[in-house]
Design goal:
Number of strands: 5
Helix content: 10-25%
Order of helices and strands: EHEEEEH
Strand content: 15-25%
Strand order of the largest sheet: 2-1-3-5-4
Mean pLDDT: 89
Distance between the termini: 12 Å
Largest sheet: 5 strands, mixed
Length: 110
């Protein structure tokens, strides 16, 4: 896999997640730094692909099945540290876990 930056660990699965016109970026409420990262990522996507994902704050996906969702999730994990992140990608959603904005920034670069 051509993934930059190179992940410390990669567990490959079948399938893929496709960004589309209905993709939503879901950010935890009350997390201005994380929302700023999501807003910047949405602008980058708009500039480079023409797609304009919606950035929402809250803890629940708008779609009951959570499809076409990139969910930013704050975690307390000393192993990740301030710049580390974890991505869990399925065909319906991407869950991005990090301890703070720096980790989310590096995650969206990947």
């Amino acid at each position: 896999y051509a993934v930059i930056p190179r992940p410390a660990r990669l567990d490959a699965r079948d399938g893929s997640f496709a960004l589309g016109g209905s993709t939503t970026l879901l950010v935890p409420a009350g997390q201005a730094g994380v929302k700023a990262v999501a807003d910047t990522f949405a602008r980058q996507l708009r500039r480079s692909t023409g797609l304009a994902p919606q950035v929402r704050t809250g803890n629940r996906p708008a779609q009951p099945d959570g499809s076409n969702l990139m969910q930013f999730s704050l975690v307390q994990d000393a192993v990740l540290g301030p710049e580390g992140y974890r991505l869990d990608i399925t065909d319906k959603r991407v869950v991005v876990e990090a301890t703070g904005p720096k980790g989310f920034f590096y995650a969206v670069q990947t």
